[in-house]
Amino acid sequence: YRSQAEHVRDELTAKALAALEQGGDAQAIMQDLAWKLTNRLIHAPTKSLQQAARDGDNERLNILRDSLGLE
């Protein structure tokens, strides 16, 4: 999981740096980077939580909540 997250980080950082080098608006680029990074990193865990809730799988929900530090 960590290597996947690092790959996403590196990919999105490279795109943001390229946009900055082309003279893009720094604030907009940074906001876009933060939004995309957040969405990419939380997508899979969110889908797993939703599926566990739909399935009524309380054991899996508890494991996911503990793993993700949710209350």
Automatic annotation (TrEMBL):
<dbReference type="GO" id="GO:0008883">
    <property type="term" value="F:glutamyl-tRNA reductase activity"/>
</dbReference>
<dbReference type="Pfam" id="PF00745">
    <property type="entry name" value="GlutR_dimer"/>
</dbReference>
<protein>
    <recommendedName>
        <fullName>Tetrapyrrole biosynthesis glutamyl-tRNA reductase dimerisation domain-containing protein</fullName>
    </recommendedName>
</protein>
<dbReference type="GO" id="GO:0050661">
    <property type="term" value="F:NADP binding"/>
</dbReference>
<dbReference type="InterPro" id="IPR015896">
    <property type="entry name" value="4pyrrol_synth_GluRdtase_dimer"/>
</dbReference>
<dbReference type="InterPro" id="IPR036453">
    <property type="entry name" value="GluRdtase_dimer_dom_sf"/>
</dbReference>
<dbReference type="GO" id="GO:0019353">
    <property type="term" value="P:protoporphyrinogen IX biosynthetic process from glutamate"/>
</dbReference>
<feature type="domain" description="Tetrapyrrole biosynthesis glutamyl-tRNA reductase dimerisation">
    <location>
        <begin position="1"/>
        <end position="69"/>
    </location>
</feature>
